[in-house]
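User: I'm writing a tutorial on reading structure tokens. Could you give me a worked example: one chain, its sequence, then its tokens, then a sentence or two explaining what the tokens reveal?
Assistant: Sure. Here is the example chain.
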Amino acid sequence: MSQLNHGTMPTPQQQAQTQAAIDTAEDLQHVNDDAAAARHLTAIRIRGQLADAEGEAAQG
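And here are its predicted structure tokens:
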């Protein structure tokens, strides 16, 4: 059986804790998205530098 009290309203403190957890999860998702974007841009830059180096080697 569930230990939840069905039909009862959460207290304001419980609501605040729940909202804080949701806010934290959303903040962490933004951090993860930013980190993924940074990794993607870094990979693009590295590929570009490698392409430049290969082009210089072919010319030289």
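What the tokens reveal: Helices lie at 12-59. The CA atoms of residues 42 and 48 lie 10 Å apart.
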